[in-house]
Amino acid sequence: MPAESFTLGAAQIEPVYHDKEATLDKTCRYIEQAGAEGVDLLVFPETYFPGYPYWRGSVSIPRWTDLMVDLQKNSLHVEDEAVEILGAAAAEADLHVALGTNELSDRGGSETIYNSIFYFGRDGDLLGRHRKLMPTHEERAIWGRGDPSSLETYETDIGQLGGLICFENHMTLSKAALTAMGEEIHAAVWPGFWEQHGHPGDKSRAETAEAVDTCDIYPAMREYAFETQSFVAACSAYMSEDVPEGFSEEELGFNVAAGGSMLINPAGIVEAGPLIDEEGLLTAEFERDERRATKAYFDAMGHYTRWDAVSLSISDETLEPAQQRGDTAQGRGDGGLSAATAQRLAEEHDVAIEAVEEIAEAVAGRQ
């Protein structure tokens, strides 16, 4: 059974911008510190490794290309030695980690970068990854779209763990999918905290906690906790006013990295944060009874749902660039049914294979 009490942590710390090795060293130090403070799950911000591309939309195409190459070189890869080092640090600190990172594709021949969360278990193993399904606005020139199969939850000793990235936390069906997978603890990663000036396309970096009045993150995280009855660790990026080496202030035109991390119970009550405009390790202890009490009143996976009225289809597909002709959805390149597929369906439904083939031919004829 999952632990009855546990401590969540948000590592609102500044990366060493575009520097994988220096960011790795800093990350391991904070993982060690969190372990010493009894943290059970430590969450790092969106693309913390090695920093969010705040230069998107603010540089020329030649400069953008140079920065993309630099980002490729400093992003994490699932087989990267840095991943092993991070896992060892998590194991030594005896905690779970949800790490926001730029991830270099592990598909042969590809150099595409994804906006990802890497999940490490308390034993240091890489449990899995989530790739942002739909990059937002100009982000589509930076990152690829994630596979449906990466929308997943993971069993841990403090509960079923899942997570979403930035505006994914506004995606109604993605939230419902994680809920249906039994999510109990949610890692939400963001690129900062902001003030909106009328609409999402007009925002500026938050300067004080009063930004909660217009920043969509604050109500979204409280509502996520309440509607899914999950414990939410929302970790937002922070960068100081110091301009990183190799950049100009004008180039970082989308710098909204004011922090804003929060730790929230399943009733939507903010137990810690938002931490604005400073670096820090935010922590809070929670009791599983807080979830039970909310579930007693409103259970999104039990007495307060109507699957007969509204249901959800979830894909576990991994997108591939090529497939063999015999691997099409119908099982045969010409759109018909392969003999192997017909045999499998006949056995599965306990009918004659001839009947299956006859029905498939009739369906193909109508198409």
Compact summary:
The chain has about 375 residues and is of the alpha/beta class.
Could you list some keywords that capture this structure?
hydrolase activity; Nitrilase/N-carbamoyl-D-aminoacid amidohydrolase; alpha/beta; Carbon-nitrogen hydrolase family protein; single chain; 367 residues; 8 helices; Nitrilases_CHs; hydrolase; 6-stranded mixed sheet; C-N_Hydrolase
Task: List the SSEs and their pairings.
Elements: E1 5-12, H1 20-36, E2 41-43, H2 61-74, H3 81-93, E3 96-104, E4 113-120, E5 126-131, E6 154-156, E7 159-165, H4 172-180, E8 185-190, E9 194-196, E10 203-205, H5 217-228, E11 231-236, E12 259-264, E13 270-276, E14 280-287, H6 288-297, H7 339-349, H8 353-366
Parallel strand pairs: 1-2, 2-3, 7-8, 8-11
Antiparallel strand pairs: 1-14, 3-4, 4-5, 6-7, 9-10, 11-12, 12-13
Provide an overview of this structure.
27% of the residues lie in helices and 23% in strands. It has 367 residues and is an alpha/beta fold. The strands form three sheets. Strands 5-4-3-2-1-14 form a six-stranded mixed β-sheet. Strands 6-7-8-11-12-13 form a six-stranded mixed β-sheet, covered by helices on one side. A two-stranded antiparallel ribbon has the order 9-10. α1 packs parallel to α3 and α7 crosses α8. The longest helix has 17 residues. The termini are far apart. About 2% of the residues have low confidence. This is Carbon-nitrogen hydrolase family protein. GO terms for molecular function: hydrolase activity.
